[in-house]
Task: structure prediction
Amino acid sequence: MGQNQPNIVFIFTDDHCEQALSAYDPSRMSTPNMDRLANEGMRFTRCYVTNSICGPSRAVIQTGKYSHLNGFFRNGQSFNGDQQTFPKLLKKAGYQTAVIGKWHLGTTPQGFDHYDVLVGQGPYYNPPMITEGEDGEPVTLPNTGYTTDVITDKTLAWLREDRDSTKPFMLMYQHKAPHRDWKPGPKYLNWLDDVTIPEPETLFDDYATRTRSAARQTMEIKTHMNARDLKLEPRGNLNDEQWEVWNAAYEPKNQAYLRALPNMTEKEIIQWKYQRYVKDYLRCVKSVDDGIGRVLDYLEEAGLARNTVVIYSSDQGWYLGEHGWFDKRWMYEESLKTPLLVRWPRAIEPGSVRDEIVSNLDFAKTFLTLANVKVPSDMQGRSLETLFRGNQPENWRKVFYYHYYENPGAHNVARHYGVTDGRYKLIHFYELEGEALDDWELYDLENDPNELNNLYGRPEVARIQRQKLNQIKNLRERFQVPETDPVFERRRRR
Ligand code: CA
Result:
């Protein structure tokens, strides 16, 4: 393996936000192993996703192209794996490629020497996983244990035993956690029981100051969490042994809640649900952090750490109660942003922080340039390698284009697109429940970081508004966004 082809370990989670990663925000929990990547490497403060939803984000990463070019707009679609992807190009260039854990693109992974992936979303316990059978066809095999640990164990087994040590490798180590319904592992069922997690300022948001879309979503902690989310009806597919441990942890807490419930105010019930939800979410993250620690330790032991680029990211950000919500999808900050940490001792200055606007659109090109593979001209985004090396790239993007398509759909977030420069953000909501909208929102994040004060149409922002409208037009042209929404399932009322 030459110095010119570093190993790549891409650690990926589902729905993990910066608010639950202590290198970004230490107020709710500590994530020492993720923080290790930040302290020994580089932390990006503005990593935006192009379409804040699970499958589409994964398709963007595979292809380096926006949803309208890779064809995967919304969950439930099947990814066309016959198209050009970065793992195929790395494999061709001599890399050994593997994906272990959550895949969630509907079709069998292509471009990998080894795959071992969850079926769809996969459960939190005892996940069946799909791998290549001896005949070369996909085969689904059972597993016992907590899914986060199962994925980590398989990752370590591949690194230790199955990897061809004569080749550089690109490993995608991808967790289901901390996706809904936030089932913690056995080790952390009672962790955080005796603390109170701080509430976000906007937990009781009434949406009065924005256009109609915000009030018409269905992702409120108050209204839309079900008994399974809240672990009031929790068994799922746990086996007897797992259930005994689980029930011993939750049953006393549930009984105390049910006893208190008749005398609780509506506000107190929301607060209880918030604590239950956020603690379970943080518990799921904690097991991921432990797993990352084990993988980082292995890289040290094996002498691989120095020339291995370790990347940590998630498919999008997430609402930990901000605006009263759980889930993602919006172009508002919490779900537009995703964590991005990169450690590469050979090139990255420890403890460095970059504020440039970067994106999951950039990952494919980045992996190719790191491997010294020629980047195809039809990939969008830009390589981050220059930033990794601490240099200032020329003409880095100042403004970013976002586009969300999944409506009608889960949690009823309107179709919308927009641009942001990190300070000002302009959003156009254009379709909700089959009805055409023409709603605009403009925010000044410096003076209104919670995005509560829609400035669109106000005289004091006229110049900014014109500038942002132009940027939308220009970026749509540059990225070849079709004039009209191309989603095949369009059900606009006629
Ligand atoms: Ca996700």
User: Anything to note?
Assistant: The CA atoms of residues 33 and 289 lie 6 Å apart. The chain is about 30% helix and 15% strand. The chain has two domains: 7-182+278-388, 400-478.
